[in-house]
Amino acid sequence: VVLSRGTEDPRKAGRVFAIAGLLMGGACAVYGITAGAPVWVAVVALVLGGIAHAFAEVLSQGAGWGLAFELADPASAGAYQGLVGMGYGVLSAVGPPLLAVTALSLGLVGWLILGAMFVAASFGVLVIGRRAARSWTPA
User: Fold this and answer.
1) Which residue of 35, 40, 61, 102 pairs with 110 in a disulfide if CB–CB is 3.0 to 4.6 A?
2) Contact status, residue 4 vs residue 58, Cβ threshold 8 Å
3) How many CB atoms within 10 Å of residue 128?
4) What is the pTM (predicted TM-score) of this model?
5) Per-residue pLDDT reduced to its tens digit, 26-73
């Protein structure tokens, strides 16, 4: 709750989502350096990467739900939420093959590509949040 505070404002939600993307990109890079590393380095890296990943997940969910609820047209909120839910379904279908093609097949380079994709997507949400804030009125 504390980490998602204020994400009903699209501008803040976009910023929070961008922070989440940077954390997830960093976590991906950290995961990538563990291959072939000494055990103690891998363990420390995985713990740090896991912490960054967990914060990224919490922040992105708070920001994503804030945007999903605040930007929905009140007259068709159910349809909007259905579309948002379908997006999660599509990502669940595309995610595993994407992970296999990047991180699992290419090692560090794949992890870096995956991390860059998270960062790029999150900065796209930052732009969406800024644009939406121009015409947003709190409910």
Assistant:
1) 102
2) yes
3) 16
4) 0.90
5) 999 999 999 889 999 999 999 999 999 999 999 999 999 888 888 888
